[in-house]
Amino acid sequence: MKYLLDYKVKLNSKAEINSLNRWCLNEVSEDGLQISPNFDWIPFIFRLYFTTYSLEVFTCVRQSWETEGSLQIVKTISGEFISGWLDNNNELKDVVRFSIFGTKRPLEYFSVHISEVQKPDEEQCVLTVIPSYKREDESFREVVEKDYAGFDIHLSADKFAALVKVVEDNKVDSVSFSVKEVQGVYATWSPTIFTRDAKILTEYNDLTNTDASFEGTTAGKASEFSFTIKTTTHLLPIRYPSATDDPELPYENTIENGPNEIQTDLVTGSKDQDELLKVLKSIRVLLFFSLAILLVILVK
Fold it and tell me: Which of 9, 31, 92, 120 is the most exposed place for a label (fewest CB within 10 A)?
């Protein structure tokens, strides 16, 4: 079996880096030249985040001779997780570009398999990473297997049963998963607890210049892991009251174009008053002439 690795991995025990580590790992060519001069890889001990939108529950009925040949129902949960966590706008944050030491091929996703264990002290999370390799299938044809990276999570019976129920009830909106201090994960030094790039060292890598000062590890256990499921209950929508729903609102706010209509009414009233004044003036003039004629007649 030939693993498709382009570079070797060299232990550099004389590295001058701003961290507690006095050693680092470098990717080197066949001639011993460092591939990326500014990339000195040291163990990454902080938290990594992953997200998925779907989980699958697989149910297997099998016969076990350990239980005198009786049938057993075994369930497992699987999903494909990508790097990052979702904010309130469903945008991925803290995305890390993962790859295996000796390659520049990005790991597009991580498989996650969750199963049940009988004892609570057996709960654990283990990272398994296998570089791409060539093999022959049943027809003696050459087949290239892709890079593989996956987490195997083992939960106690009660926790696993609760998780299965949520998934089978189809109540899952999104699932987040995080791990801390995973064996075999390396990053370049940074003053923060976040990295944008990470390399994973596997047991299949060709590690050179090893000595007693090397305290690194290949892909393995996580010291902590967290699995979070988000479910949303859709309640009745809230309808905000419109202006016409409140009888106590001002008149101009409840009638469309109210101010214009009111102004029109005021103009109409002003015209009627002018006409009335004209009529009164005409009557006054007639009375004046009538009184004048009456006086003339009386004098005669």
Answer: 31
Q: How far apart are CA 3 and CA 290, in angstroms?
A: 130
Q: What pLDDT does 173 receive?
A: 81
Which helix H or strand E contains 258, and what residues bound it? Answer: helix 258-299
Average pLDDT, stretch 238-245?
A: 69
From residue 150, give the alpha-carbon distance in Å to each of 69, 131, 215: 32, 12, 23
DSSP 178-245: EEEEETTEEEE--SSS--SEEEE--TTS-EES--TT-----S-BEEEEEEEEE-----PPP-PPPGGG
What are the beta bridge partners of residue 228? 176
CA end-to-end span of the chain, whole Å? 150
Closest CA to 200 of 176, 216, 214, 212: 216
**pLDDT for the residue 276:** 54
Neighbours of 229 (CB within 10 A): 16
Please state the pTM of the whole predicted model: 0.73
